[in-house]
Structures are given as structure tokens and as C-alpha cells.
Design a protein that fits this description.
Layout lengths: L36 H12 L3 E6 L4 H4 L4 E3 L1 H9 L6 E5 L2 H10 L5 E3 L8 H4 L3 H13 L6 E6 L4 H9 L3 E3 L4 H11 L8 E5 L2 H10 L8 E4 L10 H6 L2 E4 L11 H10 L4 E4 L5 H6 L2 E2 L2 H10 L5 E5 L2 H10 L4 E4 L15 H12 L11 H15 L9
Parallel strand pairs: 1-2, 1-3, 3-4, 5-6, 5-7, 7-9, 8-9, 10-11, 10-12, 12-13
Helix pairs in contact: 1-15, 3-4, 7-16
The chain binds iron/sulfur cluster.
Iron/sulfur cluster (SF4) binds next to helix 5.
Length: 394
């Protein structure tokens, strides 16, 4: 089987124009040092009035969050957008896959705008459709495709969600990954050979959920590496596995390490370690609590004054939590500053530029999902919405 040809060009050896989209904004992008930026943002938002609905992801900068009508995780924001059918423009201060989900869940006349098209997600980019189709073919060659249900994390591109919709699979968030896996296993419970899951694109969320919540062992899990022929796995390994984890990770949550957990415990006896399930399995094993961004926020809100917390999630959120709870000691679970660099591409100049362009009647940076992809992605999203229990948060 041939590897999918990806435009990964060594520096100085060529250009991938597609990957450079959005680096330059046409029109008048205000300078970051413009002292009138805040006033310009206020004026543009006021001029748009009810026509615009601004969404701010928890990991956004404070200067952007200030202008958000609602804040939340990616799925909450997409649902919030769907609940505002009167808003002509949805300005999504998040990353590309989130804006795609908002476009899928909003009406055909609503326009979703991403203030900087270069705000992608490194995790979502680790699973491209052609690579996933290649893996799917390999599973057919290994004689296991009929047993496999694809499950994709919300943090994936629309075409990966559509792939899951077409192939009997489902979307999940970090809050309901266990329920989604249960559902997926039940789809193939009638097979004597047993069910398997292809989990995309975050290997850590997949492994943490399978092992810590579903009673599987680490040996039940294998990792499909899209950059290796045959995923780096033999047919026998695929046949033996129950969880086939895509080799993807979040570049922010993947940084947290066991060493820092040990260091903080030694330095602050009684400290509580609270991490997101996108962290590595070894880190999650050492933590006191693990959960979604909404879980992290609620846990800190409910914590006793005087308690000490180290939080393993994106730094903007950790900093805001620390500012909002001066009665608790809240530290970041990494030695270095670590923002989501792509999320942080959305800054005040880009937000001002996007909104002022809309005021001037110019629609910029619209995110659209083609109708076929949208139809199939909606199937997988609807299966998630139909799952029993838990809220659908990530
Ligand atoms: S924090 Fe991680 S998963 Fe979230 S947008 Fe950034 S790279 Fe993607």
C-alpha cells in the first residue's frame, strides 16, 4: 500500500500555498499596537447589533473573550450558534474545525466567519481523509473492517466526521467518549469475532477512555501511524486489537509530563492535580482528577478556599481561572508558557478586521462545508446527540 502524498515540504524546498492560506489578510488589518482597537471592536460590534453573534472558545486570549457573546468548549459553542438562527453572521473565535462544526449545525443562510484562516488545529490536521481511507482499506485487507466502528473526537475536520457518518460511526467529545465507545461496541456485539474501534484523531483521549473507563488493557490498544506503511502494524496486530488508536495528539496537552507532577507534589504537599484527558496516559494516571474543560471549570468553582491546584490544560484558561479565584492557589502544570499557538492567531486586530469588514458589507474568511460532507458529518453528529446520558461537552 502506498503512503498518502502529503505536502510536507522541507524548509526552502518549495511552497504549499494551501497551507499558507490566511497568512495574509486582504484589506486593512489594524496594527496590534493600534491604541483604538478596543474602541473599534466595540463600535463594529455595536454597528452589527443582532446581526452578529461572537463565539469565544475557552482557550482564547482575554482581549478576544471580552467581545464574545458566549464562551465555551467547541461543541457548546456550535450548539449556541445553532440556537441563534436570527444571527446573520457567526464570528467564531476558535479554530477551523470548530467553525466547520458551527457551519454544519447552523442554518443555510447563516455565515460562519473565522477571523484568521490560519487558526487551525494541529491535532485535527494529523488525520487527513486520504490517510484515514488508506487505513480503512488496510483493515479490509486484514479481514477486520466489518468489526470496526470509527469514532472521531469533535476535534477533527468535517470530512473525518463525514467519514464516520458514512461508515456507521459517531462523533464524541471528551465528556461522552465512554458512552460513545459503549455505543460503538454495541453496534457489532452480534459478531462472534467481536467489535473493534478506530479512534480518531487523539490517541490519548482514546487510550485514557478505553483503559480507565471501559476496562480495556493497554495491550488491547494499538497505534495506527499514518506515516508508516500499513500504519506500522501487522495484520495480526490489527486482528488482536480492540482499540485502534490514530497516532494524533494535541500539541498543548501532549506537553504535560509526569516529572512536573512529581515536582509539584514535592513542592506543594496536598496539591490537587487536575488534567484534561487529551494528556498522556502516564500523566493522567498520576493526576487526582481528569475531565473536560467544562469539568475543570466546575471543579475549580466548587473547590474549597485555600486549596491548591495544578491544572493541565491550555494556559489562557488556567490564567483566567487563577484570576477569577484568588482565594485558591492555581498553577499551570508545565514549566514553560504553553498557549495553543493556532488558537492564539485569533487576536484583536483580526477580530476588528473581520467585524469592520462585515460592517462595510464585505464577507471575509467564511467557513463553508460542502453539502455532501455536511450531510454525512451530520449523521455522525446526530448519533452523538442521540447517545444516552451525559452532556456533550469537550
Ligand atoms: S488546544 Fe490542542 S486540540 Fe485544542 S485547538 Fe489547540 S492544538 Fe487543537
Amino acid at each position: 500500500m502506498s503512503l498518502v502524498d502529503l505536502p510536507l515540504l522541507p524548509l526552502g524546498k518549495g511552497r504549499d500555498l494551501g497551507a499558507e492560506r490566511g497568512v495574509e489578510c486582504p484589506g486593512d488589518l489594524p496594527a496590534a499596537s493600534d491604541p483604538d482597537l478596543v474602541e473599534r471592536a466595540r463600535a463594529a460590534k455595536a454597528a452589527l447589533g443582532e446581526r452578529v453573534f461572537v463565539l469565544g472558545h475557552h482557550y482564547q486570549r482575554d482581549e478576544v473573550i471580552e467581545f464574545a457573546d458566549v464562551t465555551g468548549d467547541s461543541f457548546k459553542l456550535a450548539r449556541d450558534a445553532a440556537a441563534r438562527p436570527d444571527a446573520e453572521f457567526i464570528v467564531f473565535c476558535g479554530v477551523h474545525f470548530m467553525a466547520e462544526s458551527a457551519d454544519i449545525l447552523t442554518g443555510p443562510d447563516q455565515k460562519v466567519v473565522l477571523p484568521d484562516l490560519a487558526a487551525g488545529c494541529s491535532m485535527a490536521d494529523m488525520a487527513r481523509l486520504a490517510q484515514v481511507e488508506d487505513a480503512w482499506d488496510a483493515m479490509a485487507d486484514a479481514g477486520i473492517q466489518d468489526q470496526v466502528v470509527p469514532v472521531t473526537y469533535m476535534n477533527s475536520s468535517a470530512d473525518i466526521k463525514a467519514f464516520c457518518g458514512r461508515n456507521g460511526g459517531v462523533v464524541c467529545t471528551s465528556s461522552n467518549a465512554d458512552v460513545a465507545l459503549e455505543w460503538a461496541l454495541a453496534q457489532k456485539a452480534h459478531l462472534d469475532a467481536g467489535a473493534k474501534i478506530l479512534f480518531l484523531p487523539d490517541q490519548h483521549l482514546g487510550r485514557n477512555t478505553a483503559v480507565l473507563q471501559m476496562g480495556m488493557s493497554l495491550e488491547d490498544c494499538v497505534v495506527w501511524d499514518p506515516l508508516q506503511p500499513g500504519g506500522g502494524l501487522t495484520a495480526q496486530e490489527l486482528q488482536n486489537a480492540r482499540m485502534i488508536l490514530w497516532k494524533g495528539h494535541c500539541s498543548v496537552h501532549g506537553r504535560f509530563s509526569e516529572d512536573v507532577v512529581d515536582e509539584l507534589r514535592a513542592k506543594h504537599p496536598g496539591i490537587n492535580i487536575l488534567v484534561h484527558p487529551e494528556c498522556k496516559h502516564e500523566v493522567v494516571l498520576k493526576a487526582d482528577l481528569v475531565g473536560s474543560t467544562e469539568f475543570i471549570i466546575k471543579t475549580i468553582e466548587a473547590a474549597e478556599p485555600g486549596t491548591t491546584w495544578a491544572i493541565g490544560t491550555e494556559l489562557n484558561l488556567v490564567k483566567r481561572l487563577a484570576d477569577a479565584h484568588p482565594d485558591k492557589t492555581i498553577v499551570f502544570l508545565d514549566r514553560n508558557v504553553c498557549y495553543c499557538s493556532t488558537m492564539n492567531r485569533i487576536d484583536l486586530p483580526h477580530l476588528v478586521w473581520a467585524m469592520e469588514s462585515l460592517v462595510a458589507g464585505q464577507l471575509v474568511n467564511q467557513i463553508t462545508v460542502d453539502p455532501d460532507t455536511e450531510r454525512d458529518a451530520l449523521v455522525a453528529l446526530q448519533r452523538m446527540l442521540d447517545l444516552p446520558g451525559k452532556s456533550h461537552r469537550d
